[in-house]
Every structure is written in structure tokens, then in C-alpha cells.
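Q: Here's a chain of 348 amino acids. Please give me its 3D structure as C-alpha cells.
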Amino acid sequence: MQTELFNFELPQTLIAQEPAAKREHARLMVVHRRDGRIEHRRVSDLPSYFAKPDVLVVNDTRVIPARLLGVKEGTGGQVELLLLEELEPGIWDVLLRCSRRPRPGARLFFGGGRLQAVLLKDGERGRAHVRFESDGPFLEQLEAIGLPPLPPYIDRKTPVSEQTAEDRARYQTVYASEPGAVAAPTAGLHFSTELLRDLDTSGVRRTAVTLHVGLGTFRPVVADEVEGHEMESERYRVPEEAARLHREARAAGGRVIAVGSTTVRTLETVIRERGAIEACAGRSALFIYPPFEFRAVDMLMTNFHLPKSTLLMMICAFGGRDLILEAYAQAVREKYRFYSYGDCMLIL
């Protein structure tokens, strides 16, 4: 299947640079797979589409301030790290950016030396392994000096402190609890505590799985053929409560509503590997593109994604390529806001 089949024209002016004033005030496009209808609503309207005994499944991963700006020992040259995953205590897989790549053994300083890193191994495509050293707990130092790992299409070349503080709060779901992601599960950014309370009142049950979002979710597809792309694996965990509520909803005739593509990948990975949704942990490299039989998810809430991305391919697999691309064309005409801080769609 040609990757070009998932391309579309997107004006740069539609790429959201800031979140909506209130999370639930973002626009919501509702796509009906059965008859092809498309509605234009607000996220605050979500409760009208769900009912008991439906279950809402979210991804509770917490974004760490994974972007570090520092200097190289000796030369003072600027260096930037994007933390990807902790391989073992204190040792991280990172993306390293600098004018001249240092050799293994080089020392990097962040926050005036509060946090230091020793380059252990230089890799391909900007990857490297480093060992961190600090006077106090690593995550505490990271919280103090790290920056939110915003995607490159959000322009924060010279962020002021107020803007950084807002990004720390808004590039995070209100239910985030498990630190480890280097990008937000963006569909979940639209839920406020008030909206969650309204959903609870309606009788819709809510549960969480964890998938720590990394490069696997967002790495671009460069292959001409979709089948030539390989996903990088990401860590997931399904707790017993999530498995139980999934079973109970299906047994009672309810629908399973996945909030975000990472939730979909977690549930569909588990049901393929184990035959049912059950408590477990592992890694997922599942690449979902048309045609694909969804066995764990009935409805999907998701943001508007990049052309020719694995995320768009998943959405096309769920909603049908022609219908989804028509929905995207309407989103462009109606000036929906795209990507991480943008609007979203609900596919029924």
C-alpha cells in the first residue's frame, strides 16, 4: 500500500501553537461510520454520546520534562538532550543534538551542573546512551531544570517562564500518574476534571492503561510502501481493573471507548497476544493500518494528525480511509486546529 495514499494538504496556519482556553472548549468532530455523517460539536458535548454500561479507557502515562539544554565540558558548546527511555537505573537512551558530537566519555552539564551526563555510546540518527549523575534524586532534578518535550511544530524557540509553566500544565492530562512518556497522549488533553465528573455522573465508567509514549508513536513514515515501516516498541501496562471493566462492559453490551491511539495500540496488542484483555505488562510495536480487524475497541477519540503518519493510518483503519480523509478535508475547510494542542474527533 502506497504511503502517499495517506497524504493531504494542510495549511501551516491550522497547526495549533497554544491549547484551547479551556480543555473541554476545543472543537469536536463526530464521525459516524455507519452512515458517514459528520457533526461539528465541542468536547463538552461528549457525555451525550456515551451511556451506561460503556467504559472509557484512557492512557495515564505522565510526560516527564524530557528536554534538557546544557553545555559540553571544556568547550562550553551548547547541547540538547531529549530523553527517550531509561534502559537501566541512571542510564538513558536519548536524542543528542549539538554542533559537533562529543566522543564517548565526554561530560555534559545541565542546570549549572546540578545534573551531569556522561556519554557512554554514540548511535545512529542522533541516538546516544548516557549515564546521569546528580546530587539528589534524578527525577527531582529533572523536574527542576527540564523543559516540556513539545513537538517541533510547536514554536517555542525562546520560551518565557510563563509560557513554560503553561506548557508544563497543559501538555499533560489531568489524570496523568505514571511518569515515563516523552510525548503526551494528546487526545486526553481535552478532558478537564469537570468533564470527567460529568461523565462519572452519567454512569460511564472510566479506567486507565499505561503506554509510555516515545518515538514509536511519532516517528515519521519515510518508506514509499506502508508495509516497509517498522514501529519502535513502547512499554505498556494493563492493570487488573482495566481488564475487568473491559470484560464487564462487553458482557453487558456496552461499548469500549478508547481515548487516543496509544490506548488503542495497548488494548489491541494485548488481545492479539493473549486472546483477551487481561492484566499484563510488555512492549508494543503494533503497527495498525488498513485493513485491520479491531477486536478490543468500539469507539475512538483522537486528535487530527500529520499527513502520512502512522497515527493517521490507524485512524483510517478504524474509520475507513475515504471517510476519514473526507473528514480531514472538512476539518481543513472549517479551520479546525491540528496536532497536539489542536481539536479532536470522535469516531463512532
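Q: Can you summarize the key feature?
A: The chain has a mean pLDDT of 95.
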